Fold these 2 entries.
Entry 1:
Amino acid sequence: MRVVSGIQPTGGLHLGNLLGAILRWVRMQEEAECLFFLADLHALTIDVDPQELRSNIREMAAALIASGIDPKKSILFQQSAIPAHAELAWILQCTARVGWLNRMTQFKEKSGKSREGASVGLYTYPVLQAADVLLYRATHVPVGEDQKQHLELARDIAIKFNTDYDVELFVPPEPYIPAGAAARIMSLRDGSAKMSKSDPSDMSRINLTDSDDQISQKIRKAKTDPEPLPDDPALLDGRPEAKNLVGIYSAVTGESVEQVLSRFAGQGFGAFKPALADALVALLHPLRSRLEELRNDPAELDRLLADGSARAASLGQPVLKQAYSAVGL
Ligand code: ADP
Ligand code: NA
């Protein structure tokens, strides 16, 4: 089983990214051969500030390693360091059909009202995503609900290419659903909005870089209701903020929601919030220390990424060569 997954280097990580994506990657390392990449080419599909992108790439690499992506166990690399991604994407753009891309709902959502003003890259990026995984003959790709259509496209492209050129080069990847429910972490200010870096209020999210005091303060100020916690998880329905905080506690400690409630039932947030803050600090403090170490040693970070790129290239290059050869180049 070989898994390939990328994350765009867009600003620092928050608790949602960590619980919803990165810590799942960390666990995946025990189950599969993993390639994780900083999707910096994908970051170009919308307007970027070059200086910001450059620093975000390093920051994200450090954050991933600090969170437990082990560059010895997994192959961690920067997408643009491997020209084969863009080269294969071009070949595959000539396999993919306009009709297929026209059906991608993500483009419609992301381009919004200004479809004519969106970059061509935003339109074709699902093909680059296909190249990202087909290049390494990934057997599995971890996908959220919003990316299922793109994985289906990657499979269609792999099958059409193999059929058109009568080769068995590309492996149509299967979706990989990691064990354990996917945590969807909501904003601390509004239980109905996703925790996101695009929320203008920094109080809405816990960042990987927040100090212990900031974490405690954000939890203390998190929106709640005046009711005590129930003993039955079903009674959290209709109480989005309470449900979110209990869900965070559960995701952070690994206890089930039932277990958490059996301990805190009948207590109000005055008792629950400090326990939640302590659990968050226990998770994030060591990650932040490691992040600071990596930031202070840019040469080590460069070395780790260069090593990952070399290993990724040695897997991808022969596949690219065969793709060129299949089409007659
Ligand atoms: P953001 O919403 O902050 O821009 P991204 O869209 O860059 O985050 O998401 C990066 C990864 O983190 C994706 O795998 C996404 O599913 C996950 N993720 C982002 N926000 C959350 C959240 N609030 N809860 C759970 N997972 C999340
Ligand atoms: Na986003």
Entry 2:
Amino acid sequence: MDPIQLLLEGVLDHVRPLTDGAPAAYIPELATADPDHLALAVVGPRGRIFSVGDDHIEFSIQSISKPFVLALALQEHGLDAVLQRVGAEPSGEPFNAISLEARTGRPANPMVNAGAIATSALVSGDDIDERTGRIVDMLSAFAGRSLWIDEGVYRSESETGFRNRALAHLMRSYGIVDGSVDTAVETYFRQCSILVTVKDLAIMAGTLAFGGINPVTGRRVVTEAIARDVLSIMASCGMYDFSGEWMLRVGLPAKSGVSGGLLAAAPSQFGVASFSPRLDEHGNSVRSTAVMERLSTSFGMHVF
Ligand code: DON
């Protein structure tokens, strides 16, 4: 076996005994995930992919969509216009908190739900389909293949997304979200329901790590400036109310999602992603977090 593959298998063996936590239950469709799934993928500068474990399993991207939709909003409007609608400060609060500035209603950052809904609402398009189409195209370019939406997860999210709807209505009252709240929120639910594998996530992280160029397709997806902006936000806000400790322990810009995915970018070196559905109290995957800690300490990946 390839030595890198063997090394990655060793990391999975190390975290496999961790069985704390449980798959997300607040979206019924996510509760049906096999809690034992475990996978890890790494992509290097020339697009070589190494993956181990359940690397063929597809799962919904959930909050890991947020940095890539931020990239799209930055591409369409530029940094200053985006910052008018959503801040760049870590909230120190859970992902679904009402993290809105008291006076302006501006959400703390684009990685918490409120900020992600505001960011998604910046994507141009006349209706849900047109906006979702743009988002799917952008995420597909990051992944280097055509991605699809899991309609079952979308329905499940839409049927239970009362809190996200409330956040969107609040932001609509402040003028942070324009137009139809339904369009904003359903587009956000659809972006969260895009299916990916751990390899897709590693390539998406790699595209950010390599300055906006997809290391597998060789295609430029976003400018270097946008890749840098997105990584900066991930570094300070990507792991919710664990972001500070994450930076201390792992030291890489990263993003997690409630289906158990987690990606991280080692600038100019590689993109990495891991998948395991059991979550901790922050909504981050227990084993995926342990995988990244192990990789970072064993291979000196901390950016500092
Ligand atoms: O907004 C939600 O509830 C989900 N669709 C996404 C949240 C999420 O993935 C938070 N991550 N840990």
